[in-house]
Specification:
alpha/beta; nine-stranded mixed sheet; three-stranded mixed sheet; 30% helix
Length: 288
Amino acid sequence: MQGASLRHQQPAPGRKPVPRGASRMVAKEPMSVRLPKANFGFLKALFWPVLLVALGFGTYEGAQRLMPYADRPITKINVQGDLSYISQQAVQQRIAPYVAASFFTIDLASMRAELETMPWIAHAEVRRVWPDQVVIRLEEQLPVARWGDEALLNNQGEAFTPRELANYEHLPQLFGPQRAQQQVMQQYQVLSQMLRPMGFSIARLELRERGSWFLTTGAGSAGPGIELLLGRGALVEKMRRFIAIYDKTLKEQITNIARIDLRYANGLAVGWREPATPEAAQPAVAKN
């Protein structure tokens, strides 16, 4: 029996020999790797809310301390706008209850609403001007026509009711259902533009409940006023027909015409004025 032969194997080239035995060496790791890392996520999450609360509290405290110096009483009211129908004194009296407030506590929305309840004010703009001033800019109503017997219409077809209407009898008078104010105003503007080159103006325009239109021209350079019966619908086409026939045959007789009925499909009917009766001859009085 051959004795066992021990072979001493050489380590492979490029490899370090592995230490044998129980006292095996372990490579040391850096201290930063072996120690647990501190977790700052909680502190970061808590930092911003605390900062915001501190800033809010500081702002509030600063505002409370500065408010007595910044919130001054209103000492000046500046009324702007071209006022023809209302006076600044009337405006000042209307807003007097609001002026007693301070710069920050004055109720601008209520002041504006109060001003726009005045009949002649179409629009009001109110704003603060530092440190103690309120600027009011007013836009007055522009009366274009009378609406019935108790109100006026502006250029938007909106009715308003001033206290006195005696000074506006020269305006054309429009009639119609309450809901048709803007419709009547629009028709008035269209028909006025068509009649103006002929020397006519509109003295009265009426829309009746069943939808029929009646127009009366004013006395002027074209002659005395005449009544135009327009009927329902197609007002522009009917007015064009009247203008065409007027230039050809009616112009020379206009002083004798009382009304023209345009409710026919392809023509019109003329109503003539009654001839004026001559005044009775006054008896002669003998004088001694």
